[in-house]
Design a protein that fits this description.
With about 625 residues, the protein is an alpha+beta fold. The chain contains 12 helices and 28 strands.
Length: about 625
């Protein structure tokens, strides 16, 4: 940038020799020699950072696709195919053992369900007087209070509220002149959810009922025996039994309520074994397998289900891996190319960190496993251009017919080396156990009194408490400690405390030495281990981690580019400041010289005129 020429009329006194134009030309030459090379380097650095980001993104995508093929989860997928009557639907979770199921449904689980007689309106009053009656379900009793103003709709609300939702009451429009019925049903299926009705013959409240009270809903019951039974509220009651519809009189039949479904358990055979469940959805028979009973089988019918390895998505995973590899190679080839005719070079031409990626990956891609298998064995070959191509027919055939070979070639297994901290002596329970125990950074407050017994409310009894209860209290304090995971606590047969890690977790114990000693422990750190072993692509995963992991080659290269950019920018700013200062100072000095020259020229002009005047006077 040229220095501001409006500051002064530099050059007037020197005949335009010491001019702003001269300073600008000198500064432009210095800028070209000192600043421009730095700007070129900065721009090159930014281009490298941008292109490196593109390459690391492609590497990350490729690594993710490789991980999908090497990870355990891909090979734990299961699918259930069924044939036969279709009376049972089967769904499975990952990791379930492959197996065959034969299922035959004898009875579906159902709810208890009752419908009232017909009413002309939702707002019809049900009873002619104040009453209280009972509904029982699941071994519990519930009292329903109503009066002469209680409508059909309000009665439904009272039943829902009083039974905590275990019994569901709703109004159903069935059509006709009197279209409304009250439907009362159990919320859940199963024999344990049978609904019972009872009358209250003697209550602490003024409301009672009789065997005929619920005839207001069209429910006719056999006369109760009057056994004097009491419900859970202390009311004297009579349990009621609905009459057989065939025993009703013709007048009663005209507008009677009825039981439309009976609560019952599901009954089915699993591989010939009789099974009973309260629900048609069974999730506790086989771990990870969910059965839904759809219908009752006819004689001789059954559903066969085969639980096998699911290969769904694996072909897509292979294609994604191949596509991401090819995109990566094309990008690297473009970034490292050199055209000898034009002299044009890619961003990373000659940069070892980038040029070595292709050779490192191809060394693994072209490799052979210990049992002589290669990618070509599965229909994946490499072209002359260094790109991968897929024979989908061959690959699909290997996946469907030789899945174990495919799995053994691609997959890896995660193995854990777990550690155990064992107490060196039996815990003595004669005194209180009180102190702070820190495991893996989680501080646990332990306070077990000398006289501790489970369920005690505190206060000394003078006894020594129960040893079993004390052990359980200590184990509970450790096991339930917030933030402490993958650590289990137990006592061995000698009464020594044992802490076990799982999933390769470390165990680090800290605390007051005296308190630790009372537990038979000491401060220590035991290191667990997690290791991925096996699989042809394990080496590929390791190589990719070595490139873009926390301490990977490209990670460090990216950090060096960032550091270099900062250094170059600072150097440029410093040199620019030095140049600006240099030419500002030069301009100030030249301005002073210009004034001085102007004065000297003025003085010289005066002397010249004086000399000329003297010479003319002497003529």
């Amino acid at each position: 940038m040229a220095i501001n020429t409006e500051k002064s009329q530099l050059g007037v006194g020197s005949g335009n020799i010491l001019s702003w134009d001269t300073i600008d030309k000198l500064k432009e030459a210095d800028t070209k020699a000192l600043i421009t090379p730095l700007e070129t380097e900065i721009q090159s650095n930014l281009t490298k950072q941008k292109d490196l980001t593109a390459i690391t993104t492609l590497l990350s995508t490729f690594k993710s696709n490789v991980s999908n093929l090497t990870g355990d989860s891909t090979y734990l997928k299961r699918e259930a195919s069924t044939s036969g009557s279709g009376s049972v639907s089967v769904s499975v979770s990952s990791g379930v053992a492959e197996q065959e199921l034969n299922l035959s449904v004898e009875q579906l689980a159902s709810q208890d369900s009752f419908q009232s007689k017909k009413f002309s309106s939702r707002t019809d009053s049900v009873f002619t007087q104040d009453v209280s009656f009972g509904i029982s379900i699941g071994g519990k009793d519930y009292v329903i209070d109503a009066d002469s103003t209680t409508t059909l709709e309000q009665l439904a609300e009272k039943i829902n509220e009083a039974t905590d939702g275990k019994v569901q009451a709703k109004i159903l429009n069935v059509g006709g002149d009197e279209p409304f019925r009250l439907i009362i049903q159990s919320a859940e299926t199963g024999e344990a959810n049978k609904i019972g009705f009872y009358s209250i013959t003697n209550s602490s409240s003024s409301n009672t009922s009789s065997d005929s009270t619920l005839e207001a809903l069209g429910f006719y019951f056999d006369k109760s025996s009057g056994s004097g039974e009491k419900d859970s509220y202390g009311n004297e009651i009579n349990r009621l039994t609905l009459k057989d519809p065939n025993s009703l009189s013709d007048d009663q039949k005209k507008n009677a309520g009825s039981q439309i479904a009976t609560a019952q358990d599901a009954k089915f055979k699993y591989n010939g074994i009789d099974i009973t469940r309260s629900s048609n959805k069974v999730e506790d028979l086989i771990l990870g397998v969910s059965l839904t009973l759809n219908k009752v089988d006819k004689a001789g019918e059954s559903t066969n289900s085969s639980i096998k390895q699911s290969t769904e998505g694996i072909l897509e995973d292979i294609k994604a891996m191949v596509d991401s590899f090819n995109s990566l190679m094309n990008n690297i080839n473009e970034a490292t190319k050199y055209d000898s005719e034009t002299g044009l070079a890619g961003t990373f031409q000659g940069v070892r960190e980038i040029t070595s990626i292709s050779s490192d990956l191809n060394k693994i891609i072209n490799g052979v496993s210990s049992d002589g298998k290669s990618l070509a064995s599965f229909g994946i070959t490499i072209t002359e251009d260094g790109l991968l191509t897929i024979d989908s027919t061959k690959l699909n055939d290997m996946i469907t017919t030789n899945f174990d070979e495919f799995k053994n070639f691609f997959s890896s297994e995660t193995k854990f080396t777990n550690v155990t901290a064992r107490g060196d002596k039996k815990v003595e329970w004669g005194d209180e156990i009180k102190g702070k125990l820190t495991i893996n950074g989680v501080e646990i407050d332990i306070n077990i009194p000398k006289d501790y017994t489970a369920g005690s409310t505190g206060g000394s009894t003078g006894g020594t408490g129960d040893e079993k209860d004390k052990k359980n209290a200590l184990l509970k304090a450790i096991t339930n400690a917030s933030g402490l995971s993958n650590i289990s606590a137990s006592f061995d047969k000698d009464g020594k405390l044992v802490l076990k890690g799982s999933g390769g977790t470390n165990i680090e114990i800290k605390g007051d030495s005296t308190f630790l000693e009372s537990l038979g422990l000491k401060e220590q750190k035991l290191e667990g281990k997690t290791e991925v072993v096996g699989g042809f692509f394990k080496g590929l995963n390791d190589t990719l981690n070595g490139l873009i992991g926390t301490n990977g080659t490209l990670t460090k290269y990216g950090e060096s580019l960032t550091s270099s950019h900062k250094s170059l920018t600072e150097s440029k700013e410093k040199r620019q400041q030095e140049l600006d200062t240099k030419y500002t100072t030069m301009a100030e000095k030249w301005s002073q010289y210009d004034v001085l020259i102007s004065k000297l020229e003025t003085q010289m002009s005066t002397v010249t005129r004086m000399i000329e005047a003297a010479a003319n006077a002497n003529k």
